[in-house]
Request: fold
Amino acid sequence: MLAVTAPLTLGAAGDAGAAGPAGPAAVVPVVMDHPIVFARYSAAAPVEDLYAISPSGGAPVKLTHTSNVSDVMPSWSPDGKRVAFLRYGAGGAIDGIWTMKSNGTDLKSVPGTKGASDPAWSPDGTRIAYARPVGTQREIYVADTDGTPATRLTHTAADEFHPSWSPDGTSLAFNRADASGHSRLMRIKLSTLAQTPVTLAGSHDWAPDWSRGNRIVFSRVDATGFAHLYVVRPDGGGLHRITSARANDKNPSWSPDGRRLVFTRGGTDDADPEHLFLVRADGTGLTQLTHAATHDLEADWRP
Reply:
């Protein structure tokens, strides 16, 4: 199990499979505290599986082992015992949302989620929000973890993606993409379905993650032409940029204490690896977490 106190056998240096002149890297038992789960694929092995890695580094642990379906978009349950994720097959046909124990066992499909994406577990552990196609658009839904009842929250002509729960579980942040290619952050109150813009129209804002400290981090393609990480308050105030490199930074996720972020950097095409990085919320302390010639995506930091 990837529980906070569970010891795992991890490589002391580098990613899984790393080897030196004397053969495979030595492994030592370490404790994986608040592990980060993410999806990985490579140009040579395009099927995606889920992995977990300690924030302190070491070798990722492979959680899913599939040969003909891909597992992506993981989301931790608040107690850290299960992970929700999206599974899709050859040709991109979406099988739906599944959950599993944190060690990769006890897989269960969530009924009624065929075609859905972007699962997000509620702070109380009872519900999962997700995006689901309605005609040619995607809308935000929420359901109990058994898939029922599925309640549609948005009704627009735009595409809604990537819901993220407020700390008190009363609202969701998400990004709304229009036909012009712009995307802005929105929030919706579950009790009334009242929607409020968080960022301005005409933006290119994606993949919000709402912290316990009531801040929303997201990825924005700004005037530089690169995607950088930004933070904003739920009311739209206090906007500031965290990263500024000539690189694409995306899919940020808060650490449990709200002091750091994990995100993906890189990836212009399959020949350009994407790695996980850590950074403090003030933009300092940038650290590369994964190093393999792979695409490491959609990380979620265990609460």
Observations:
- DSSP finds no helices and 28 strands in the chain.
